[in-house]
Each structure stands twice: as C-alpha cells, then as structure tokens.
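Weekly sync, protein design subgroup
Attendees: M.S., D.O., the rotation student, P.L. (late)

Item 1: inverse folding check
M.S. brought a backbone from last month's batch and wanted to see whether the design step gives back something sensible before we order anything. D.O. pointed out we never logged the input encoding, so this time it goes straight into the notes. Structure tokens as presented (303 positions):
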C-alpha cells in the first residue's frame, strides 16, 4: 500500500490562469486546482495535497473573512481574499479618475474592508493644491488620506505607511502611472526579485506585471501581508445588489429609512431623503450620479 500523500496548508501568493503559487513556512509550492475551477484568489488559505516536494493540488479553500472582486456584465474577477484594508493610490500627475476611486471605495465598503487613499508625488508642487481639492471629498467621508512622495521623500513614505500595514492584510490598487510600483518597492525591498521568481515559477515570462501578487512582511508581525495588483482603468461592480449599493455609500447612511417609500431607489422618487440631501449639498452630486450608474449596471448582469 502506498503511503498517504502529505497535506499542507498554505497561502496563495500569485495566480495565473489555473496555476497558482502558494507559500507554506517560507517554501514556495506550485499548485493547480482540480478540474477547471479557477475560484482561488490571492490571499486565500488553502489545503493542498502534495504530489511532489514542491507541487500539489488544491483540495479546499479555507473560509474567507473577506473577498474583493470586480465584475462586468459577463464575469467576475477575484482580486484578493482575506483583506483587512485597501489603499487606493492616486497622484498629482498623471490625472486620476474619480470614477475608479469611488468604485474602489464602494467595493471596499461592500466587502467590509477598511479603505485609505494614498496621495503620491506630492513633490509636484504646482499640481498639489488642485489634487488636494480633488481628494478632500473622500477625506470628508472619513477615508484617511496619506500624502507621500515615493521618489522625492522615500524615508517619509516608508515611515508613513509601514505602521499602517502592521498586522493587516493590505492591497494597493490604482491606475497605471500613479507610482504604485515605486511604493511597493519601498515597502518590500525584495519585491523585484520575488516577482521574477514568481514569474519563473508560474511560467508567465520574466517581465510580466499583469498578475496580482502577495508579499509577506514578517518583520511587521504575524499576518502582515501586502498585495500588489496590476494597474487597471475599470472597476465594474455589476455583482452588487440594490441593498448592498445603498449601504456601500457611507454618506447615504443617515438618510436610509427616512424616505416616503420603504422600497425607494433614491433615483426619482418623491420625498426621498437621499435626493433631498443631494439637493442640500450634504451628498456630493458626483457620488449620487455614480450610485445611479451602479444601480443601472447591477440590473444588466447576465451571469
């Protein structure tokens, strides 16, 4: 009788198609899922049946505390599991889109993840006042904004952000060009080497940056991880229901339950408390417009 195969528990640190890289006690393990399943996310804790010293099959995903994902009309894309916080990186230049920032904040609220903004490239002095004006509405909603310059003041950037990462599972997201990679390289000095190793292990080509990857930060204490995601311009939230959406806009909260109709959608209904707050300037028009857009998107879902 052959010996039973060894079982191991590991954390998923990168994914490419059906191929995953996991880490257990500092060792990297190449894994695949059974069948055609691709429902494993970076950050997942998984149970693996080993098929060789460094390869195995994922048998089970441990229960997730949180799951962040985006979706379009046809499918959803898992970003990361078991996150405790999300950092949206914006910069003085190039310009960022409020749509992406607001959508990321809504996704974080819906998933129960704390959200922060990082305003990078503060050394671009002439663009700083305008950019501060643009992030002020998010700060007013209670989302912390951390001002840094990864290139001009790297030590200050590290001193600002590292304490926030301790004991947390954090993801950095943002559009291309915001300086997210520079921040990751400051916070995880060995990130470039690790990325090359991951690329080689997943056979994705030596220079790819198109996959999400997780770095452990043991010097910041247990459970301290940082996840880098590829820059993206779109953040679809087709999977959020009406009820989830109205609760994911934090500024709606004081007005929910005060509309004339109990099933109010806060779009055109008479005596709607949310619409009244928009009229009074208590809710930003930009945010309410996005809410209406997301409500429309959620009604288009085909999957």
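Designed sequence read out in the meeting:
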């Amino acid at each position: 009788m052959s010996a039973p195969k060894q079982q191991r528990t590991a954390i998923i640190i990168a994914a490419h198609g059906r191929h995953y890289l996991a880490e257990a006690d500092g060792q990297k393990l190449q894994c695949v899922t059974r069948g055609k399943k691709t429902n494993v996310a970076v950050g997942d804790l998984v149970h693996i049946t080993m098929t060789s010293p460094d390869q195995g099959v994922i048998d089970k995903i441990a229960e997730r505390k949180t799951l962040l994902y985006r979706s379009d009309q046809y499918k959803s894309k898992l970003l990361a599991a078991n996150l405790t916080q999300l950092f949206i990186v914006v910069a003085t230049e190039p310009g960022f889109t409020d749509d992406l920032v607001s959508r990321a904040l809504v996704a974080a609220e819906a998933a129960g993840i704390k959200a922060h903004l990082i305003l990078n490239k503060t050394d671009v002095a002439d663009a700083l006042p305008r950019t501060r004006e643009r992030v002020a509405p998010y700060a007013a909603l209670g989302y912390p904004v951390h001002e840094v310059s990864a290139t001009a003041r790297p030590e200050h950037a590290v001193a600002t952000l590292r304490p926030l990462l301790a004991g947390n599972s954090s993801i950095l997201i943002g559009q291309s060009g915001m300086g997210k990679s520079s921040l990751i390289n400051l916070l995880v000095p060995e990130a470039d080497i690790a990325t090359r190793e991951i690329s080689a292990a997943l056979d994705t080509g030596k220079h790819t940056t198109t996959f999400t990857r997780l770095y452990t930060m043991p010097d910041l204490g247990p459970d301290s991880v940082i996840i880098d995601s590829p820059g993206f311009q779109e953040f679809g939230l087709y999977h959020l229901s009406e009820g989830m959406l109205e609760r994911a806009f934090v500024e709606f909260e004081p007005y929910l339950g005060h509309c004339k109709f109990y099933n109010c959608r806060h779009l055109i209904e008479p005596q709607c408390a949310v619409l009244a707050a928009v009229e009074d300037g208590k809710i930003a028009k930009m945010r309410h417009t996005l809410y209406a857009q997301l409500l429309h998107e959620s009604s288009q879902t085909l999957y």
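Discussion: The first helix runs from residue 98 to 111. The radius of gyration is 21 Å.
Action: P.L. to compare against the previous round before Friday.
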